[in-house]
Every structure is written in C-alpha cells, then in structure tokens.
Amino acid sequence: MTVVDAESRFHVLAVDDSIIDRKLIEMLLKTSSYQVTTVDSGSKALEVLGLREEGDDSSPSSSSSPDHQEVGVNLIITDYCMPGMTGYDLLRRVKGSSSLKDIPVVIMSSENVPARISRCLEDGAEEFFLKPVKLADMKKLKSHLVRRKQPQLQPQEKPEAVIQQQKPEQPPQEPAEEAAPEVVAVSDCSKKRKAAAIEPEVLSSPVTTNPRLSSSGLAVET
To answer: Using CA atoms, how far apart are residues 135 and 79, in angstroms rounded to an integer?
Structure first.
C-alpha cells in the first residue's frame, strides 16, 4: 500500500466561516490525499459529528443518540474566530464528549495571540496554525492521525521487556566449589587429632617380654 493510499483513509472535517479560507484548506488537504468535509460553522460541524448544539432540540437525528458520529471523522481543523460558536467552543464540545474526545482537533487563526494559543493547547488542541495555512502545515497532521490509528501494542510489551531485564541473575556457583576443600581440610585435621591422641597411649602402655630359659632349663630370666 502506498503512502497516498494510506493517507486517503483519513477523513478531515474542516470548519471555517470564510469561503476563501475554507476553499484553501480544502485544496491543501486534498493535495495531501485526505478525504475532506467542509462546513461553515461550528453548529454544522456538530451535526456532522452527531452532536447537537446546546439548547437546540430541533435535530431529530441527534436527539436519539447525541454522541453518535454521523460520519467517521479522524481529525477536525477549525477556525478560531467564527460567529456564534467559536473554534474554541467547538473544541470544548468535542473534548467533552465521551465518544469523540479522542478525535484530534487543530485550531487556525489569523491573529497571533499567545494567551489564546496557550488556552487552546491546554484544553486539548493538538496544533495551533497561523493563517494563511500552508502545505507544510498539512504534513504536521499526519503524525496525529497515524498515532491515533496505530494499535496500542508496543506500550503493553515494554513492561514485559523491562521485567525480563530486571530478573535477578543466578548466583555464581564458585562458593559451592570452594566448600569441598574446606570439608577435606577439616577431615585431615580430625585425622591428625586422632593420631596425636593414639600416640601417647601407645607410648604409655607397658612393654611385656617373653621369658627366656637359661641353658640349664632350671632358672627363668625375665
């Protein structure tokens, strides 16, 4: 499977109230071989995602299953400044949904406001792009999409590898081999002690001699 075929599986939902910016982001995404759906407001984005806007009870499709995603979306890229629901509001709604909170959200804005950027990133945005968005920015999306698609197998295997590395090594057998000479040395000492104890007994025992008869055969010499 080629890279283009792999990336074409990813579906990006682009949200922007400006038709010029919306057409630009759509062109850049399609050039990068992504499937694209564009909408012009946050409320329409909620409809695509299967969420209804707060206080809106007129959507029959979303009332039955408010957290059901109507179209499979792998990533959301949205403008920050939009009438009605802002991009930040859309981010909060997506991250507050139990079924949609894992979808990466990228924010775009033509205003470089550090406090705004920090707030979006802290509340779950993956990236914050400054307009005009460039093709190089689209390449940054791939890492977020691939990370979400990969099965979480490696993190489960790592602890096993760590456990195997931390297994205690078998104790060396050298002490067991040195024990044999110590036993022999003790045995030799005991033999020497026994021999030393027997020797005085032999020296202290009386010496008996056999009687000798004299030539006459009458007297006995001792």
So the answer is: 17
Helix (H) or strand (E) holding 70: none
The residue written with tokens 């760590």 in the block is 162
Per DSSP, what are the bridge partners of residue 204? none
| Model confidence pTM above 0.85 | no
User: Residue 76's beta-bridge partner residues?
Assistant: 13, 105
Task: Tell me which residue of 72, 94, 99, 91 sits closest to 11, measured CA to CA.
Answer: 72
Angstrom distance (rounded) from CA 22 to CA 39: 8
Residue pointed to by tokens 């959507």: 59
Phi, psi of 81 (to 5 degrees): -90, 105
Distance (Å, whole) CA 121 – CA 107: 9
Phi, psi at 75, each rounded to 5°: -160, 145
Tens of pLDDT along the chain (222 residues) come to 444 455 557 999 999 999 999 999 999 999 999 999 999 999 999 999 998 766 554 444 433 344 545 568 999 999 999 999 999 999 999 999 999 999 999 999 999 999 999 999 999 999 999 999 999 999 999 888 877 665 544 445 545 544 455 555 666 665 555 544 554 444 454 555 555 555 555 445 555 555 555 555 545 554
- The residue among 129, 104, 148 whose CA lies nearest residue 13 is 104
At residue 84, φ and ψ (nearest 5 deg) are 80, -105
95, 124 in Cβ contact below 8 A?
A: yes
